[in-house]
């Protein structure tokens, strides 16, 4: 045990006491789960209180009496737990779930799904009709949401927010069962994967280079050549160019999504993509090693924004891709609008249709399973001739 009264920090067993901004926090790991919460304001009295709380946690861990709800050690957690014992609503269950889960949930999930659920779902409904948040009104709650959103929009919010928070309450014994398990969301109609032809993709790339959006031409061309997801391209640095067995590769091992750099890809796999002549020429044009770094942004970023930061993909799509595609449609050079993610579909389809790569190789190149390739990415040819018997 050690205590630094001047800097408001210390350690009692596994329990750390630290100060941040105007508060004193408790941090520790127990049974592979990380806990962190604010316990007092940054004052001498607050530090004394934090030491007492840390001692209580240490003692309970040693005695096998640790309270994983933290209600025994934190007034905020205690209030959240008390609320749940009084016919809790979805909002009550959500507030408790946030408290105990915020350290283990991915930052992108919190930034997207958590934000939407808290503001566009719970917050919006609470203002209009709080009774819809009562557990006995689960069917009315779903019916209300379906009037506003498509099932495909609701499902990720349910799986990342509503269901985990209600299931936690069941696990803790706060409620007997999850009433939302009985509500079945209608299945949406799955639209067919669409993509541009190779010639159309080349035309789009050239239009980027020939327009005011030329800064993003290399990014669009790179995605078209590798079929990678945009968030992976945006996260690449010069260090991701690797050599193995006499060949050079691009290593896809991280992603930049929703303004958060993730140290892993969507499926958490590291993928090596072989560099061919076209890709090599593009990398030489980009010269990523020359891109300077800052405290927040690593050196050698492949595709920095004009201000030297990470690119925000939504801005590229809205300010550059959409105007360019719409202009090509006005000129009669494209017959439809497809999202920029179609560059990935186009690449995978091109690899398959050229017949030089088998499905297993395409799956490996794209970071998908062969089943996903067959079910979702392989767009059927049109206008072909039926072979003669």
Please give a handful of descriptors for the protein shown.
3 domains, 389 residues, five-stranded antiparallel sheet, 10 strands, hpI Integrase, Chain A, three-stranded antiparallel sheet
Please render the helix and strand layout as text:
Blueprint: E1 2-4, E2 9-12, E3 15-20, E4 23-30, E5 33-41, H1 44-63, H2 75-84, H3 90-101, H4 107-128, H5 138-148, H6 151-172, H7 198-210, H8 217-226, H9 230-235, E6 241-244, E7 247-252, E8 255-257, E9 260-262, E10 271-274, H10 277-286, H11 313-330, H12 342-353, H13 359-366, H14 370-377
Helix pairs in contact: 2-3, 3-6, 4-6, 7-8, 8-10, 8-12, 13-14
Task: Give a written overview of the molecule.
This protein is α+β, with helices and mostly antiparallel strands and 389 residues long. 47% of the residues lie in helices and 13% in strands. Strands 1-2-3-4-5 form a five-stranded antiparallel sheet, covered by helices on one side. Strands 6-7-10 form a three-stranded antiparallel sheet, with no helix packed on it. A two-stranded antiparallel sheet has the order 8-9. The radius of gyration is 26 Å and the shape is globular. The N and C termini lie far apart (85 Å). The model is unreliable at 380-384 (pLDDT under 50).
């Amino acid at each position: 045990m050690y205590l630094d009264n001047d800097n408001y920090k210390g350690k009692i067993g596994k329990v750390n006491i630290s100060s941040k901004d105007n508060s004193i926090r408790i941090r520790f790991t127990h049974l592979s789960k990380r806990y962190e919460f604010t316990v007092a304001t940054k004052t001498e009295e607050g530090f004394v209180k934090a030491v007492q709380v840390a001692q209580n946690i240490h003692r309970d861990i040693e005695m096998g009496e640790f309270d994983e709800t933290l209600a025994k050690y934190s007034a905020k957690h205690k209030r959240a737990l008390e609320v749940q014992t009084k016919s809790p609503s979805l909002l009550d269950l959500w507030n408790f779930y946030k408290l105990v889960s915020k350290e283990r949930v991915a930052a992108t999930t919190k930034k997207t799904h958590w934000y939407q659920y808290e503001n566009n779902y719970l917050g919006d409904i609470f203002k209009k009709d709080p009774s819809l948040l009562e557990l006995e009104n689960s069917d009315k709650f779903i019916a209300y949401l379906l009037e506003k959103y498509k099932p495909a929009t609701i499902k990720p919010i349910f799986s990342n927010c509503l269901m985990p928070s209600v299931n936690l309450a069941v696990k803790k014994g706060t409620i007997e069962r999850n009433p939302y398990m009985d509500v079945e969301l209608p299945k949406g109609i799955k639209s067919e994967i669409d993509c541009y032809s190779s010639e159309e993709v080349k035309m789009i790339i050239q239009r980027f280079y020939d327009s005011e959006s030329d800064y993003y031409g290399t990014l669009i061309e790179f995605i078209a050549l590798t079929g990678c997801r945009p968030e992976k391209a945006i996260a690449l640095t010069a260090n991701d160019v690797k050599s193995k067995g006499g060949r050079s590769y691009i290593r896809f091992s991280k992603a930049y999504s929703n303004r958060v750099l993730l140290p892993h890809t969507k499926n958490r796999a590291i993928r090596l993509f072989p560099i061919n002549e076209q890709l090599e020429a593009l990398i030489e044009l980009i010269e990523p090693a020359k891109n300077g770094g800052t405290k927040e942004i690593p050196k050698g970023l492949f595709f920095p924004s004009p201000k030297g930061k990470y690119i925000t993909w939504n801005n590229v799509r809205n300010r550059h891709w959409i105007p360019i595609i719409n202009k090509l449609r006005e000129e009669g050079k494209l017959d439809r609008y497809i999202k920029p993610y179609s560059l990935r579909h186009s690449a995978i389809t091109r690899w398959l249709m050229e017949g030089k790569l088998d499905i297993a190789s395409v799956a490996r190149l794209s970071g998908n399973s062969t089943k996903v390739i067959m079910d979702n990415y392989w767009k059927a040819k049109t206008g072909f001739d039926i072979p003669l018997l």
